[in-house]
């Protein structure tokens, strides 16, 4: 069983909704987090996207999820820090971590915000701003909640206090993740103490072989690690199980995968971006494919990545079918409820 050595299973969901009824879509996504907890997943992650029909504020969404779940870890992959103020974001994330009783995982990326030209009138984003890894380092420093002065400060309703970023979310800095696809990102994440998120996109540096590039990425990250806590690497794959899907859904999944296979045939752009083919099929077919994945033995955490623009019923079927593939999840379920509803 290619997944037998994995100790942490998670899923990553886009959080789609219709513009005419965003509540319904967000509610269905919260229900999927609840279902993931019932199925025994260790964590559930939400994508954060801007100017799209998806979750634009991961912290706000996960605050709601923290009150709908009890044990499952909650994560965001990834927050684009180019849009964020590290001070204010740290306050939001610390609040969510406290509300969830220490279940939050924070995945981030850096770089100039892609939509800066569209939102210039609403922000103070500037071309000359620092969009480097230093922005992530500022977030980590803010989340440590160290005193900002040795002197107490007055002038607030709570009286004289030592100024520091509050609430204090102890241990959250050990649960910071970086979405890295290049050797430089892996080097920085290891040196800075951020755990590593890697999925089905990497930079092809010195090779056009996706698996070779991703293996080198993980090895570089671990070589650079020099921190007290254990480094974590979470590997993501887009997988569409079909065991309980209808014939029409199976055809739709197969067409979706076939439509994206073209991008996997060559490297793209100046960064030589490489894409891994999605996996679609029965449990037996998925297991055979994963058994041939040379990167899988390098990690102990696995993330099921769900595609954009599928229906909530599709996502539910996918996470339930995948739970059948993973016997480790059955050990975590209070009641075995893979088939059917809640």
Kindly describe this structure.
The two termini are 28 Å apart. This protein has helices at 22-39, 58-68, 86-99, 134-143, 183-192, 210-224, 247-260, 283-291, 312-325, 327-330; strands at residues 8-13, 43-46, 73-80, 104-109, 176-179, 195-198, 201-203, 233-241, 273-275, 279-281, 301-305. Helix 1 (22-39) links the parallel strand 1 and strand 2 (43-46). 35% of the residues lie in helices and 16% in strands. By secondary structure, the protein is of the alpha/beta class. It is built from ten helices and eleven strands.
Question: What features would you highlight for this structure?
Answer:
342 residues; alpha/beta; 10 helices; disordered C terminus
Order of secondary-structure elements: EHEHEHEHEHEEHEHEEHEHH
Terminal Cα separation, in Å? 28 Å
Q: Compute the number of strand runs.
A: 11
Number of helices: 10
Helix content: 25-40%
Biggest beta sheet attributes? 8 strands, parallel, barrel
Strand content: 15-25%
- Give the averaged pLDDT, no decimals: 93
Low-confidence stretches: 335-342
The structural class is alpha/beta
Radius of gyration from CA coordinates: 20 Å
Shape descriptor: globular
Biggest sheet strand order reads: 1-2-3-4-5-6-8-11
